[in-house]
Amino acid sequence: MKSKGHSVAAIIQRLNEEADIARRYLDLCELEVLELRFSDDFILKLLYEIINKHTSQRVKLPEGIFDMTTTIHGIYEE
Fold this sequence. Notes:
Radius of gyration: 16 Å
Number of strands: 0
Distance between the termini: 39 Å
Strand content: under 5%
Number of helices: 4
């Protein structure tokens, strides 16, 4: 799997293309792919668990962390 460039945007684009291909193949097999409502929250939790393998088993992310990251990135709920 090669991307068109070495930038983060090119890698993200390539990963999204691969995800679309996988969804199409699964659709041909009549399997449903569930879409996460808040995929950013899932990614944040996953990164925390990867980076802090031992700590994440004992200490979970606080619930307010998702609201904090939303505020930091300038996304506000209406």
